[in-house]
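Section 3.1: Structural characterization of target chains.
Under the original work plan, the team committed to producing a structural model for every single-chain target entering the pipeline before any wet-lab resources were allocated. The record below documents one such target. The sequence was received from the expression subgroup and is listed exactly as submitted; it comprises 104 residues.
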Amino acid sequence: MESTCGRFVITFNGEIYNYRDLRKSMERNGKRFRSQSDTEILLELYKRKGAAMVQDLRGMFAFAIWDKRECVLYLARDHLGIKPLYFADDGWTFRFVSLRRSRH
């Protein structure tokens, strides 16, 4: 998903349990949303708070946000690692993935 301003792009695996409360707080401050998704909330929260946004999140998640203007990639996962986040950098290519855990 891309932010309304076009600056940020996110890929997201998981669920933010408190996104409705976060959304209500932002709407009280005048923010209008395009969707009902928790993904859009993450983009707006990052726009407002940067990396400190994760302190506001309750849920299981792994995500990556690309800042097109600054050329910065921000990766985050929940503090319990319920949604794992793996990455590799061979000096040429940076790769990252979050996989659903097996139920076996």
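The chain has one domain: 8-97.
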